[in-house]
Each structure stands twice: as structure tokens, then as C-alpha cells.
Fold this sequence. Notes:
The chain has helices at residues 15-31, 84-99, and strands spanning 3-10, 36-44, 47-54, 57-65, 69-76. By secondary structure, it is α+β, with helices and mostly antiparallel strands. The protein has a single domain (3-99), classed as TATA-Binding Protein (2-Layer Sandwich). It has a five-stranded antiparallel sheet, with helices on one face. The protein is globular.
Amino acid sequence: MSKPVVVSIPHELGRAEARRRIDEGVERLTGQIGAVGEVKRAWSGDTLAFSLVAIGQTVTGTIAVDEREVRLEVLLPGIFAMVANKLKGRLRDEGQQLLLPGAKRR
């Protein structure tokens, strides 16, 4: 059974800058999941849909960018359910680093 992980990250960058940073840093975020190979992604308005393979399992999700908040939702396959809380913290931390005012790229 799949388990959704939802992370909301407030920011003060405005929608356009937050979207630019997410677009450039999505690999950093998905790297927290253990992505192997290519991350497939597509923007629809201000929502980025993505999918990746981690430990032989397909993980899907969306990143919705608003003026003052980014909402990341990841649908984890059953094998990942036991690490969902740890993953949620790592995604939040990495997302906050991406969206800090004046943050430098890694």
C-alpha cells in the first residue's frame, strides 16, 4: 500500500523565484528519496509532477509552488512506508535550504 508524504515549506521568495529554485534543485530534493537514474518531470502551471525509481520501486509526486509556500507531496510505495517520517524531515530540510533567501547553490 502506498503512503503519501506531504511537506509544506513557507518561503518569502515569490512564486517565480521559488519555482526557478525548485526547477534547478529538484534533483537535490529527489536525491533524498534515493533516486537511481533519471528523474522524469513535467510542469503544469506552477505544479511540477515527477517520478523516479528508487530501490526498484517507482516513486511519484508533485511540487506545487505558491506565492508564499511550496507544497511537496510524494507517494511512497509500501517498501518506503517504514521510513516515511525520516524522509519527510529530510525533504523539509533540503527544501528549506533551496528556498532560503540568498541561498547559494550546492
